[in-house]
Amino acid sequence: MPATIIDGKSLAARLREQLGTDVEHFKRSTGRSIGLATVLVGNDPASEVYVGSKRRLSQQAGITDHHRRLPGDATQAQVAGVLDDLAADPTVSGILLQLPLPDHLDTKELIDRIPWEKDVDGLTTISAGRLARNVEGLLPCTPLGIISLLEDEGVQLQGTNVVVVGRSDLVGKPVAQLVLQKNATVTIAHSKTKDLAAFTRQADVVIAAAGVPHLLGAEHIFPGAVVIDVGIHRSPGGLIGDVDFDAVSKIASKITPVPGGVGPMTIAELLRNTLKAAQLQN
Ligand code: NAP
Questions:
Q1: What is the pLDDT of residues 235-258, one digit of tens each?
Q2: What's the pTM?
Q3: Would you call 54 a catalytic residue per the annotation?
Q4: 69 C-alpha vs ligand 1 centroid, how far in Å?
Q5: Domain of 220: which CATH number?
Q6: Choosing from 118, 119, 121, 204, which is the catalytic residue?
Q7: Which residues have C-beta atoms less than 6 Å from ligand 1?
Q8: What is the pLDDT of residues 164-207, one digit of tens each?
Q9: Do 151 and 237 belong to one domain?
Q10: Where would I find the H helices in the chain?
Q11: 258 Cα nearest atom in ligand 1
């Protein structure tokens, strides 16, 4: 039987609609606004598109736009100065530094200037520590979106074997920690893993975040497994993921498409994090 296609676009739209109501309620009950500052350095075309979507959808949800733009040759001190101003501004609830930054900038140092309670991307060292210790904080958006998709699909993680392919700070590591918190048994694979298929074939849930087009085929998946594809790659035929969708959708029980799976969830979770940031600061 072909897999159920997990519709991230539809869940993201539902979450954003609910968020609009929750933002209105927050503003009415506290008399405070909610603001999101996106910071874009340079003019990378993909980053321009991502930042444009984040600004448009946050404004639609009733969140005030505090966008800042710097030239591609901005110095470390200039970017740091903008982040420090936003950190001190009480009307800014959340700060998002769009990555990747130009090569001459120290990304980790700049991310760590963002106060954890405004860190709506969940990428600072303090946010990562709070996640590792399971202390309330702001969590990275793509991992949050993956958990929301699995929950909405009624996938119970407790007691399951989950294999996460990829160990980045952005996706692999935090999503592995979140599924561990849900009492799954978690394996993290990476580029040095020998015989990837031997691990992924044991998994009830496979989360593919390797950034390698069509890395996972039918031979990697146990029939009936749930497959979450985080990868996004441009190909001559359009966007594709880390999973060979045509082959794997014939044997998985549920699978996310690319596009329309995890991607739309990332922005929805960013907006939810912005409301949560405002609540934490209130
Ligand atoms: P990344 O920082 O490049 O990390 C990739 C990870 O995959 C690394 O840990 C790497 O291992 C591992 N890896 C690479 N080749 C592998 C292989 N052949 N077998 C097993 N593991 C392998 O990438 P990322 O930022 O996590 O992003 C991953 C993908 O998700 C990209 O396609 C990105 O565009 C996409 N993405 C999508 C969204 C969304 O909203 N849908 C959000 C973020 C990212 P090592 O650590 O050993 O190098």
A1: 999 999 999 999 999 999 999 999
A2: 0.98
A3: yes
A4: 27
A5: 3.40.50.720
A6: 121
A7: 142, 165-168, 170-172, 189-193, 196, 209-212, 215, 230-232, 262-263, 266
A8: 999 999 999 999 999 999 999 999 999 999 999 999 999 999 99
A9: yes
A10: 8-30, 45-60, 76-88, 107-111, 125-133, 141-152, 172-181, 196-200, 245-248, 262-281
A11: 41
